[in-house]
């Protein structure tokens, strides 16, 4: 593009036709395409607009996917209710009947597996409901001590944790390890010891090291069992696991 002073007016010479025009409105369409400077600015503007549009579309898609996942957390369809009832019964049986009672405050069981499956298949909310209802139902049918709402709260937090870590996530050993870690440290060691201290007094603190060692020793076993359960669930037909 060549600009020169003529008759006290800025004129623009088209590099394609060689003709001069006093204003940009007089440009023929071909002149707009043949001016390198304008073409460079036009292409840069198009690139910036394309980047902004794709960025907005990407974040909008991610936001819609998150909203869909969050809505699926709270869906209580008949199929889900049936699955929750089956897992609730399994958790009551596995935690109350198939367990090893070491002492009044020490017990080893596999009741966390149905709770983890509920969180993995139906999300944190359903996992929390299954865990809380299983704890209340098990304490009512098979009482082994005082019914305390703190233990129900611990079970509900554990169920929500399983859903947050496992719902619509890829199966991996490190994910299973990170999922079991807060349940072991916060729920089993910290909160359950607090509830026992509130119920039985300061004598429970003497068994705190034993409880901590038991839970830490059981941690790798729980991680391995959870990982194998995740692999087994993923290999089942989708007609059974799609809830």
What does it look like?
This protein is mainly alpha-helical and 243 residues long. The protein is 70% helix and 7% strand. The strands form 2 sheets. A 3-stranded antiparallel beta sheet has the order 1-2-3, with no helix packed on it. The N terminus is likely disordered.
Order of helices and strands: EEEHHHEEHHHHHH
* Average pLDDT over all residues: 77
- Approximately how much beta-strand content do the residues carry? 5-15%
Count the E strands: 5
Number of helices: 9
Shape, per Cα inertia axes: globular
Strand order, main sheet: write it out: 1-2-3
Work out the radius of gyration: 33 Å
Topology:
Blueprint: E1 2-6, E2 9-13, E3 20-21, H1 29-34, H2 36-73, H3 78-96, E4 99-101, E5 107-109, H4 112-122, H5 124-141, H6 149-166, H7 173-200, H8 208-235, H9 238-241
Antiparallel strand pairs: 1-2, 2-3, 4-5
Helix pairs in contact: 3-4, 3-5, 4-5, 4-6, 4-8, 5-6, 6-7, 7-8
Short key terms for the protein model shown above:
globular; two-stranded antiparallel sheet; 70% helix; three-stranded antiparallel sheet
């Amino acid at each position: 593009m060549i600009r020169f002073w003529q008759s006290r007016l800025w004129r623009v010479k088209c590099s394609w036709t060689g003709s001069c025009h006093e204003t940009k409105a007089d440009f023929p369409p071909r002149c707009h395409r043949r001016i390198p400077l304008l073409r460079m600015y036009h292409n840069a503007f198009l690139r910036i607009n394309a980047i902004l549009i794709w960025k907005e579309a990407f974040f909008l898609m991610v936001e819609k996917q998150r909203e869909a996942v969050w809505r699926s957390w709270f869906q209580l369809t008949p199929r889900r209710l049936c699955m929750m009832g089956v897992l609730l019964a399994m958790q009551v049986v596995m935690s109350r009947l198939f367990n090893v009672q070491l002492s009044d405050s020490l017990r080893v069981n596999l009741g966390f597996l149905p709770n983890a499956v509920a969180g993995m298949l139906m999300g944190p909310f359903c996992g929390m409901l299954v865990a809380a209802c299983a704890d209340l139902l098990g304490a009512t049918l098979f009482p082994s001590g005082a019914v305390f709402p703190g233990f129900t709260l611990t079970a509900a937090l554990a169920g929500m944790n399983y859903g947050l870590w496992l719902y619509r996530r890829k199966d991996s050993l490190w994910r299973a390890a990170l999922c079991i870690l807060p349940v072991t440290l916060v729920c089993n060691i910290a909160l359950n010891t607090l509830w026992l201290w509130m119920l039985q007094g300061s004598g429970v603190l003497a068994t705190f090291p034993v409880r901590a060692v038991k839970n830490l020793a059981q941690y790798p076993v729980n991680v391995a069992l959870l990982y194998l359960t995740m692999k087994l669930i993923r290999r089942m037909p989708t007609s059974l696991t799609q809830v």
